[in-house]
Amino acid sequence: MNERKYGAFSSSVNPQELSLTVTSIAKVIIGMLIGFGVFTTTGADTTLEQIPVIVSAGYATWQAVEALWGAVRKIIVAVTAR
What is the rounded distance in angstroms from the CA atom of residue 1 to the CA atom of residue 76? Predict the structure, then answer.
């Protein structure tokens, strides 16, 4: 069984690729930022190329936060159970 590279953000067709929905939403947001003058088209191209890296970093951060929260919760339960 193939493991999903991006978790819930993985493509349903190819689990090793980022979902088309995620990339499309990112393109819409970046397009709006270009319209408002926040990004130039060159900066937007660079950002669009980095979307898989950004999503991977966000997913890894989320997993780390969940692990830390689990550890903190275990400590709280252990201390209050006495």
Answer: 37
